[in-house]
Write a structure and sequence with these properties.
12 strands; 207 residues; globular
């Protein structure tokens, strides 16, 4: 199951039992229009969650945010000021955050400014069950004067947080201007959220 989930060229859909019984966490990731893949949690180091695909691509997350990538094209190499990230602090309404980013294709120290808002009573459906979430909207703008012409110097990231725990269940993140967004679903966290609420799911049901 592990090898199949990480290697199929089509959208991956794991069963509830495969996710619930696995000794490691799974995450779904879709990059732009590419097929959805499953990544397995390989390591947790210094609060960084390192997710690996069957092609040895890596996505590193902190509190649900992508902070580094490997093998995905114009990889994000570094983000500064991560401890002040509102996703770590859990405070969003009217919150601002500044960071600097390094990308593989020659952009270093690019300053980014984010403004956050939160919206309650959003519902997401997983395995035919509804989970209440808080939608966090992050408006991102590039503050550094670009080295080349840009048509889009701002974008929006979305994070859906479990209303009970505040943990990110799903997100849509864009790492830089003009780049395809990443859609992430933390399917193992979804399964834990369903279990906490006592919701029953058939083992062969797919997500």
């Amino acid at each position: 199951m592990f090898k199949l989930a990480l290697s199929t060229p089509e959208d991956v859909s794991l069963t509830y039992s495969a996710i619930a019984e696995a000794p490691y966490d799974f995450m779904y990731l879709r990059q732009g229009e590419k097929p959805r893949v499953a990544l397995a949690l390989a390591f947790i180091e210094q609060q960084q969650f390192k997710w690996v695909s069957g092609e040895q691509e890596m996505v590193v997350t902190e509190s649900g945010r992508i902070v580094r990538t490997l093998g995905l094209g114009n990889d994000l190499l570094f983000l500064s000021n991560r401890q002040a990230d509102p996703l770590k602090q859990g405070a969003f309404r009217g919150t601002q955050w500044r960071t600097a980013a390094d990308w593989q294709l020659g952009e270093y120290g690019t300053e980014l400014r984010s403004t956050f808002s939160e919206h309650h009573n959003y519902q997401l459906t997983y395995f035919n069950h509804v989970l209440p979430t808080v939608l966090v909207i992050e408006q991102v703008a590039i503050d550094t004067k670009p080295r080349f012409w840009r048509f889009d110097g701002s974008w929006q990231n979305l994070y859906w947080l479990d209303a009970q725990t505040g943990r990110v269940l799903q997100s849509r993140q864009q790492l830089t201007a003009g780049q395809a967004s990443y859609e992430l679903v933390y399917v193992s966290e979804v399964v834990r959220a369903l279990k906490r609420r006592g919701l029953v799911v058939a083992g062969d049901e797919q997500l």
